[in-house]
């Protein structure tokens, strides 16, 4: 029987009948001589050892014309029938010796043509990674016919016509209108470029320095540069600081009266950053030296007590901070008054205003401490709007704090306000001291939010910021970006000029991450 369960017509299954049918004698067909086990093995081995079936069809892809495989024989064609065993003749192998099996020859097709043995078709050439897609041949796949030539080939001896080129698919027009419901990604706008000036008219003075200050060959260390620029990044804040000589001082060849000090005390998360800004008295001959001395003295005092200050800031001991920093400020400014007395000058002739910021390096501590004496400004840029948070005189009135010019407050444990900050308490060498009218001590602590910009500045920059709305709007646009400006960009922003304001400009900006 065939594998489909029916009995096919014709002679294509005769080999089965001859091998296993009723006419067969034994297991190996009819024979005049008795067969052996070796004869049966040879017959079955010749029957089972056939060529493997043809491989599965190839995936779509046009192979080259010169590598087209021949057509495999039809599935309904009968497999080749092995020849029947021949009776042993005289001189043949004795019983018990296996003869050499014979390879069956392929049977011809019904039309008389010889059938080629099946073989695996050749695979189409693969495209190399560096070749363009056009290198892969395109078009329909052709196979060999029973005559042995490709489908669609020319008659015998004529070259095959190339397949017609495939037309490219029609271009799909891009949509002209976007889905209004789809979310639209818009990159954040860049900050506007910095401006040379704001207001209706430019200032009278030139924008660049004109004259240098007069120099003393024996006191070259006292020369003050026209511009000071500094910056750092600690904890959650980025610092930018600049001090620029005013337009009038540049024109007249006068030194910059503002002084700027940025210092770090300690290491790691226990470090403390101090930024001090001092301004000498106007028209005083040594105003720039008094401002520099005020910054150095407050820096020395804070640096010696930075460990305790860091603990007080992290523990939010506002009362201890206010009283201790008040005392440090009074002692630093008291040295200036004593120096004026030694030089035979009026106390106001050798004095300075002082404003300071304390920034802990601990990223988990966002408390910012401001303290100082004298005019200036403390601003905060939050959500694109400026807030004036300068402590006013009405907010700082109250009980006087122990400091220079007052008898020390003694307790059984000693001077607590001084000992808490680690400052020795010997009698002050500056008593008695002159009692000029003094500015109230200004103190404020604030907790920064991510995205805030805290700005501390002297009077030369605070006055135009309060008096010119255009300057506030311009700086708000420039500094609302979460990324802090670079040093050069920050310097350009602080030099935006406003007519009527020609004093020195010193500004300290703190960007909160």
What does this structure look like?
- The protein starts with 13 loop residues before the first helix and ends with a strand.
- The protein is built from 11 helices and 13 strands.
- The relative contact order is 0.11.
- The protein has helices spanning 14-20, 37-48, 247-252, 287-304, 306-314, 318-342, 393-396, 416-419, 459-467, 469-479, 487-494; strands spanning 197-198, 227-234, 237-244, 258-265, 272-280, 352-360, 367-373, 377-382, 385-388, 441-447, 453-457, 497-498, 505-512.
- 22% of the residues lie in helices and 16% in strands.
- Strand 8 (377-382) and strand 9 form a beta hairpin.
- The protein folds into 2 domains: 7-49 and 60-117 and 125-148, no CATH class; 197-512, 4-Layer Sandwich (Phosphatase 2c, domain 1).
- The strands form 3 sheets. It has a 6-stranded antiparallel sheet with strand order 2-3-13-11-8-9.
- Helix 4 runs antiparallel to helix 6 (318-342).
- The radius of gyration is 51 Å and the shape is elongated.
- It is an alpha+beta fold and 513 residues long.
Q: Which range best describes the helical content: under 10%, 10-25%, 25-40%, 40-55%, 55-70% or over 70%?
A: 10-25%
CATH architecture of the largest domain: 4-Layer Sandwich
Query: What is the helix/strand order?
Result: HHEEEHEEHHHEEEEHHEEHHHEE
The CATH class of the largest domain is identified as Alpha Beta
Number of domains: 2
Give the low-confidence spans: 23-28, 135-155, 396-428
Q: Please state the structural category.
A: alpha+beta
Strand adjacency order, main sheet: 2-3-13-11-8-9
Percent of residues in β-strands: 15-25%
Radius of gyration: 51 Å
H/I helix tally: 11
The CATH topology assignment of the largest domain is: Phosphatase 2c, domain 1
Shape: elongated
What is the straight-line distance between the termini?
Answer: 87 Å
Mean pLDDT: 73
Number of strands: 13
The H-level CATH homologous superfamily of the largest domain, spelled out, is: PPM-type phosphatase domain
Largest sheet: 6 strands, antiparallel
């Amino acid at each position: 029987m065939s594998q489909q369960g029916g009995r096919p017509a014709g002679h294509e299954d005769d080999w089965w009948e001859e091998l296993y049918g009723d006419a067969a004698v034994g297991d190996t067909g009819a024979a005049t001589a008795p067969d052996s086990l070796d004869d049966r093995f040879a017959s079955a081995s010749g029957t089972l050892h056939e060529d493997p079936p043809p491989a599965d069809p190839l995936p779509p892809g046009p192979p080259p014309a010169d590598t087209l495989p021949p057509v495999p024989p039809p599935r309904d064609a009968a497999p080749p029938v092995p020849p029947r065993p021949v009776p042993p003749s005289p001189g043949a192998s004795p019983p018990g010796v296996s003869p050499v099996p014979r390879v069956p020859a392929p049977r011809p097709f019904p039309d008389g043509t010889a059938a080629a043995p099946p073989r695996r078709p050749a695979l189409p050439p693969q495209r190399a990674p560096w070749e363009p897609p056009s290198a892969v041949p395109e078009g329909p796949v052709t196979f060999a016919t029973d005559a042995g030539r490709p489908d669609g080939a020319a008659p015998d001896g004529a070259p095959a016509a190339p397949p017609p080129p495939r037309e490219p698919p029609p271009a799909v027009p891009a949509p002209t209108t976007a889905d209004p419901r789809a979310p639209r990604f818009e990159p954040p706008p860049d900050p506007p470029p910095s401006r040379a000036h704001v207001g209706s008219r430019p200032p009278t003075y030139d924008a660049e320095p004109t004259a240098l200050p007069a120099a003393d060959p024996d006191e070259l260390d006292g020369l003050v540069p026209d511009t000071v620029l500094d910056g750092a990044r600690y904890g959650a804040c980025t610092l930018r600081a600049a001090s620029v000589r005013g337009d009038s001082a540049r024109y007249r060849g006068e030194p910059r009266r503002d002084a700027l000090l940025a210092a770090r005390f300690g290491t790691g998360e226990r470090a403390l950053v101090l930024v001090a800004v001092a301004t000498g008295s106007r028209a005083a001959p040594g105003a720039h030296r008094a401002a520099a001395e005020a910054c150095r003295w407050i820096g020395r005092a804070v640096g010696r007590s930075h460990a305790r200050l860091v603990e007080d800031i992290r523990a939010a001991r506002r009362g201890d901070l206010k009283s201790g920093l008040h005392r440090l400020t009074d002692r630093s400014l008291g040295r200036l008054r004593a120096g004026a007395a030694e030089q035979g000058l009026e106390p106001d002739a050798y004095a300075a205003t002082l404003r300071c910021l304390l920034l802990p390096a601990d990223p988990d501590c966002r408390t910012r401490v401001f303290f100082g004496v004298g005019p200036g400004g403390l601003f905060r840029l939050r959500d694109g709007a400026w807030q004036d948070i300068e402590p006013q005189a009405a907010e700082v009135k109250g009980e006087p704090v122990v400091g220079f010019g007052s008898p020390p407050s003694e307790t059984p444990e000693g001077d607590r306000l001084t000992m808490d900050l680690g400052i020795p308490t010997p009698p002050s060498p500056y008593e008695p001291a002159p009692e000029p009218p003094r500015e109230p001590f200004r103190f404020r602590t604030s907790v920064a939010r991510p995205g805030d910009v805290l700005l501390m500045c002297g009077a030369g920059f605070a006055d135009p910021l309060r008096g010119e709305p255009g300057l506030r709007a311009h700086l708000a646009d420039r500094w609302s970006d979460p990324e802090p400006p670079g040093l050069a960009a920050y310097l350009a922003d602080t030099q935006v000029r406003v007519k009527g304001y020609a004093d020195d400009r010193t500004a300290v900006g703190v960007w909160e991450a």
